[in-house]
Amino acid sequence: QVQLVESGGGLVQAGGSLRLSCAASASIFIVEAAGWYRQAPGKQRELVAAITTGGSTNYADSVKGRFTISRNGAKSTVYLQMNSLKPEDTAVYYCNADLLLGFSSHNYWGQGTQVTVSS
Fold first, then answer.
1. Residue 26 DSSP one-character state
2. Integer Cα distance of 24 and 68 in angstroms
3. pLDDT, tens digit, 9 for 90 and up, residues 48-88
């Protein structure tokens, strides 16, 4: 069964940086459009950053200028570089992606990775 595997979360002080990674459990899949979402306790899940199949990106206003979404050249992994982190960035971060194998594409969610920013 194909899964999206996330890594890179953790505890960091305000002003610090983290880089999240998201990849399919099998390297034969190509990551097409993808997005990073986050959900803080008691809040709804929100879109933080997205990248299209063609490489265009967009960001939530709250993270513009601080976060960068990217995809590696092999289109096997999506990253979220998070700089100048704030306590309000604390949340569980989820990756969502369309994975392509041959001519078939399906959408998957990762299991989530905790990001905690201390003040």
1. S
2. 20
3. 999 999 999 999 999 999 999 999 988 889 999 999 999 99
